[in-house]
């Protein structure tokens, strides 16, 4: 995608109209000086010559024909330029929305593993910095076109006035353009670096916002973060930006100077070597003075266009970085299965350089409907990675996943994935129930809010939850309400109960999970709550990326309890003796 392409792909007719109007304005601009010079050369233009005069609103107008043409050109410039700019501004707003929408669509259709690698800061930088920069650059196109047409027109006029002057000017412009490239290339290098540092700055800002509580508690820590992380990131963006912009301005002024140099060289040097009449010289100098305007504008645009191209390259790289997941889309949810089977399934994380990181597998596992499967294991043993394979956010790299006898692959994965509802440990709570509407929804939500002890805390009104300002445990319960309403075939809970109080923990393990099981759902729970391991039909023990045990034998239970008891750093183990579950809750 190039800048022009971004606009012309969206609305070719509007883009064409804007450029055409820009060209008309350019031609009209280029016509002004020849017209004035022609009028001045006409005897009717001078005082005392009474021919060809007219009176308009009491004003005496000499050389009326030229004056009327001059006015006509001015009006044409005004109308054509305004229309061209208005069309482009409106189009650019549509294009910005369009580009952002494309990015949203790409993000939502990208493989989760790629999104995790790209990270939020790069996406935010792309949406907030790159898209507006590209659009701002593309918006200059008609003005660029207008000024280029004016320049070409004026150079043509120069050729008509005096061919040697024209070739002299062309030589000077050629020299200027070539030598201009040196500072322009240096500037570009620094501007690209400044833009690359922007991703790091966004990452640092994320730390500032998300780590605000931690930073506030300790001045030394905050100082350190400001000095070594934020300030450094800011300085990198600022320093390279400053150097890039400075060199760019030098290049621009150098370009400006070249045009004046041409005028000086023509007036003071060229005339000594070529025969040129005084009126001819006046015409040439006027044309050259007039040309400085479009040249200055073109030079002024260059930094912005350069920034836009850098941003566009970043956007294109991001699009290439987050490819669309190669799976069939718009397929109906698949509910017609009884068991999900992992046969020798393996997965490994790859870093940016393609180096393999943590690896799980080969895994053999069966998750059946109407059963509860617990996954237990120490920190970093691969439980969440396995969970993402179960929810099909990650696709196996080795082995095979089957739903009954059907092998999971690109053609059917989207269908099976739509039958999954999951609450991950880093879940996101939306302020509404997505994908469902209707009057009966509110009644259902209300009854779940009551059951989960959230009535009075939050309501479902006008299609959204009235507040999300809830405690961690309450937020998780609200996420559970939304998950429950999805009526999925497979439910996955990654440490859902970790921050629930004993009563809700008991409610979750003793009422919600068995309830889902009774409804014939496949239930997968990552848990450290060894008190409730007996709720499981199947207990899967993970150690170092492998399943080391997978049944409910006494030995597995003992092993699972031992592994769970090694979870020192969670600190959220269930307190002994849950208080009786409230009748409304149970
Ligand atoms: N997005 C990622 N990119 C690269 N490596 C990752 C990523 N996520 C996890 N890992 C690696 O995979 C290993 C297993 O992580 P995983 O989250 O599956 O463990 P876990 O058993 O769920 O741990 P915990 O109990 O702490 O949540 C980790 O040691 C980590 O190094």
Automatic annotation (TrEMBL):
<dbReference type="GO" id="GO:0005886">
    <property type="term" value="C:plasma membrane"/>
</dbReference>
<feature type="transmembrane region" description="Helical">
    <location>
        <begin position="166"/>
        <end position="187"/>
    </location>
</feature>
<dbReference type="InterPro" id="IPR003439">
    <property type="entry name" value="ABC_transporter-like_ATP-bd"/>
</dbReference>
<keyword id="KW-0547">Nucleotide-binding</keyword>
<keyword id="KW-0812">Transmembrane</keyword>
<dbReference type="GO" id="GO:0140359">
    <property type="term" value="F:ABC-type transporter activity"/>
</dbReference>
<dbReference type="GO" id="GO:0034040">
    <property type="term" value="F:ATPase-coupled lipid transmembrane transporter activity"/>
</dbReference>
<dbReference type="InterPro" id="IPR015856">
    <property type="entry name" value="ABC_transpr_CbiO/EcfA_su"/>
</dbReference>
<dbReference type="GO" id="GO:0016887">
    <property type="term" value="F:ATP hydrolysis activity"/>
</dbReference>
<dbReference type="GO" id="GO:1904680">
    <property type="term" value="F:peptide transmembrane transporter activity"/>
</dbReference>
<keyword id="KW-1133">Transmembrane helix</keyword>
<dbReference type="GO" id="GO:0005524">
    <property type="term" value="F:ATP binding"/>
</dbReference>
<protein>
    <submittedName>
        <fullName>Cyclic peptide export ABC transporter</fullName>
    </submittedName>
</protein>
<dbReference type="InterPro" id="IPR036640">
    <property type="entry name" value="ABC1_TM_sf"/>
</dbReference>
<dbReference type="InterPro" id="IPR005898">
    <property type="entry name" value="Cyc_pep_transpt_SyrD/YojI"/>
</dbReference>
<feature type="transmembrane region" description="Helical">
    <location>
        <begin position="281"/>
        <end position="302"/>
    </location>
</feature>
<keyword id="KW-0067">ATP-binding</keyword>
<dbReference type="InterPro" id="IPR011527">
    <property type="entry name" value="ABC1_TM_dom"/>
</dbReference>
<feature type="domain" description="ABC transmembrane type-1">
    <location>
        <begin position="16"/>
        <end position="307"/>
    </location>
</feature>
<feature type="transmembrane region" description="Helical">
    <location>
        <begin position="140"/>
        <end position="160"/>
    </location>
</feature>
<feature type="region of interest" description="Disordered">
    <location>
        <begin position="561"/>
        <end position="586"/>
    </location>
</feature>
<dbReference type="Pfam" id="PF00664">
    <property type="entry name" value="ABC_membrane"/>
</dbReference>
<dbReference type="InterPro" id="IPR039421">
    <property type="entry name" value="Type_1_exporter"/>
</dbReference>
<dbReference type="GO" id="GO:0015833">
    <property type="term" value="P:peptide transport"/>
</dbReference>
<dbReference type="InterPro" id="IPR027417">
    <property type="entry name" value="P-loop_NTPase"/>
</dbReference>
<keyword id="KW-0472">Membrane</keyword>
<feature type="transmembrane region" description="Helical">
    <location>
        <begin position="62"/>
        <end position="80"/>
    </location>
</feature>
<keyword id="KW-0813">Transport</keyword>
<dbReference type="Pfam" id="PF00005">
    <property type="entry name" value="ABC_tran"/>
</dbReference>
<feature type="transmembrane region" description="Helical">
    <location>
        <begin position="257"/>
        <end position="275"/>
    </location>
</feature>
<dbReference type="InterPro" id="IPR003593">
    <property type="entry name" value="AAA+_ATPase"/>
</dbReference>
<feature type="domain" description="ABC transporter">
    <location>
        <begin position="340"/>
        <end position="569"/>
    </location>
</feature>
């Amino acid at each position: 995608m190039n800048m022009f392409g971004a606009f012309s792909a969206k609305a070719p007719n509007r883009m064409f109209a804007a450029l055409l109007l820009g060209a008309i304005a350019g031609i009209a601009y280029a016509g002004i000086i020849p017209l004035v010079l022609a009028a001045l050369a006409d005897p009717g233009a001078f005082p005392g010559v009474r021919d060809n005069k007219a009176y308009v609103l009491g004003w005496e107008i000499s050389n009326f024909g030229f004056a009327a043409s001059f006015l006509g050109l001015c009006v044409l410039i005004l109308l054509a330029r305004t229309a061209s700019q208005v069309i482009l501004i409106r189009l650019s707003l549509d294009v910005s929305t369009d580009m952002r929408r494309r990015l949203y669509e790409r993000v939502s259709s990208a493989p989760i593993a790629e999104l995790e690698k790209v990270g939020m800061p790069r996406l935010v930088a792309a949406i907030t910095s790159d898209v507006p920069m590209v659009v701002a650059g593309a918006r200059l196109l008609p003005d660029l076109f207008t000024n280029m047409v004016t320049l070409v027109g004026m150079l043509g006029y120069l050729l008509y006035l005096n061919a040697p002057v024209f070739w002299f000017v062309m030589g000077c412009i050629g020299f200027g353009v070539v030598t201009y490239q040196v500072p322009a290339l240096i500037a570009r290098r620094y501007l690209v670096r400044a833009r690359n540092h922007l991703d790091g700055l966004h990452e640092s800002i994320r730390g500032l916002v998300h780590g605000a509580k931690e930073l506030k508690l300790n001045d030394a820590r905050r100082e350190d973060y400001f000095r070594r992380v934020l300030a450094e990131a800011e300085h990198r963006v600022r320093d390279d930006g400053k150097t890039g912009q400075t060199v760019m301005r030098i290049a621009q002024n150098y370009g400006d100077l070249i045009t004046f140099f041409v005028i000086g060289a023509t007036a003071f040097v060229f005339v000594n070597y070529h025969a040129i009449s005084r009126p001819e010289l006046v015409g040439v100098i006027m044309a050259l003075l007039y040309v400085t305007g479009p040249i200055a504008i073109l030079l002024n645009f260059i930094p912005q266009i350069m920034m836009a191209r850098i941003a566009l390259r970043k956007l294109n790289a991001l699009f290439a970085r987050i490819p669309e997941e190669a799976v069939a889309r718009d397929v109906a949810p698949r509910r017609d299965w009884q068991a999900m089977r992992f046969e020798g399934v393996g997965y490994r994380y790859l870093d940016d350089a393609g180096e393999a990181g943590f690896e799980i597998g080969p895994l053999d596992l069966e998750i059946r409907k109407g059963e509860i499967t617990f996954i237990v294991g120490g920190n970093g043993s691969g439980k969440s990675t396995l969970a993402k394979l179960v929810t099909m956010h990650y696709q196996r790299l080795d082995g095979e996943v089957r739903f009954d006898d059907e092998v999971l692959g690109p053609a059917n994965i989207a269908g099976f994935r739509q039958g999954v509802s999951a609450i991950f440990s880093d879940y996101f709570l939306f302020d509404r129930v997505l994908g469902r509407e209707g009057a009966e929804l509110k009644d259902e939500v209300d009854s779940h809010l009551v059951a989960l002890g959230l009535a009075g805390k939050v309501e479902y009104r006008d299609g959204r939850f009235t507040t999300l300002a809830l405690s961690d445990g309450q937020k998780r319960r609200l996420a559970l309400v939304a998950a429950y309403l999805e009526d999925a075939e497979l439910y996955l809970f990654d440490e859902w109960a970790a921050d629930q109080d004993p009563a809700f923990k008991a409610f979750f393990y003793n009422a919600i999970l068995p309830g889902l099981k009774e409804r014939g759902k496949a239930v997968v729970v990552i848990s450290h709550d060894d008190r409730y391991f007996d709720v499981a039909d199947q207990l899967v023990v993970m150690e170092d990326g492998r399943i080391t045990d997978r049944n409910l034998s006494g030995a597995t239970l003992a092993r699972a309890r031992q592994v769970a008891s090694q979870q020192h750093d969670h600190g959220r183990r269930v307190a002994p003796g849950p208080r009786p579950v409230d009748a409304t809750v149970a």
